[in-house]
TrEMBL record:
Keyword Lyase in annotation: yes
Name assigned to this protein: 3-hexulose-6-phosphate synthase
EC number: 4.1.2.43
Catalytic activity: D-ribulose 5-phosphate + formaldehyde = D-arabino-hex-3-ulose 6-phosphate
Species, as recorded: Methanoculleus thermophilus
Amino acid sequence: MATPTLQVALDLLELDRAVEIAEEAVRGGADWIEAGTPLIKSEGMQAVRVLRERFPEHEIVADMKIADTGAVEVEMAAKSGADIICILADADDTVIAEAVRSARKYGVRIMADLINVDDPVTRSHELAKLGVDYINAHVGIDQQMIGRSSLALLRRLAGEVSIPIAVAGGLDAETASEAVAAGASIVIVGGNITKAADVTGAAQRIRNAIDRPEIRPREEESQEAVIRRLLEGVSAPNVTDAMHRKGAMADLISICGRVKAVGQAVTVRTLAGDWAKPVEAIDVAGPGDVLVISNEGRTDVAPWGELATHSARNRGIAGIVIDGAVRDVDDIREMKFPVFAKATVPNAGEPKGLGEINTEIVCCGQVVRPGDWIVADESGVVVVPRERAYEVARRAMEVKKTEERIREEIRRGRTLSEVAELLKWEKRR
């Protein structure tokens, strides 16, 4: 396969949306069209039939992820119009062999998906002997969220087997180009095409990239830098969606309106407006940190004001979150500095030195530990546990991408209820 193949993975639940997106992707240069596993589970073999009918000149891939009854499931997909059928590489050899026999009978091909295989090189040799037509170096989305790479898996396989290798898992234009340079014959792209507002443009960019493959030198980026970059690119609602509606603080307002703060927490516990520890914490915090202050929820006295804000800004602190009140809001608003509080009040406390810095606190209903990540914007404040920050940041970006496509479909005239097919997916019990 001298020319790299671009396969678009339609991992959606709604067939009409999948067909519309596929049409746009084909206009951008997609070659093969995949009925993704979620689409097949949602719509059954009708998804394959409709794609076959709508795209008679294109290869249709059915991502069945077959684990058992290989012959039966291959027959189902083949008779529905699939040209290529995906089986799990870690299925038993008897299942693989039956799937291959069925594929030969119906004139279709088998792609073996290496997701979750412990020894992909050895298994790929075995699969080739069993007669599969393609090996898919696939890292699943949940694995991607914790940092596993399809490119790394591909590089382990390159040169090891003679049959064509596909690669799938979080690829964009840059990594798709690298994949072809590393030996991939088939590049499978899902969300970075299907979730784009401009699907045709996204597919065209990847098409252009894989037609001119290259491996580009990359600057190493620390995990902390990746987390910050991703969280700065999403909203607080995106983050809480990624955490299954968890992590949001209650009753906070953005004092300066449309501002944003992202950073790791430096926590402060104080009492009755005592502003000594909050001010001392400015010297403890580093650039990019967020001060999170527990004032026991009291709103009759403020542990924070304009002078402290000015000092924090000079220090490079990213923002302030207060379970309590703030004063001097007119001056703070002129600074446009991210301060989030429960209320405003002119009363200040006394600097008695009560409280602690960098200890676990409860702020507006959420436990916050030193080093937890804070994402705060006009919608509210979300706490991300430090040990899950990379994963949550990746998932939040996926939420944002999904919303971008939905927003585009609404712009074209559909309602949110129509896009989401709410009546179909309402919980029955």
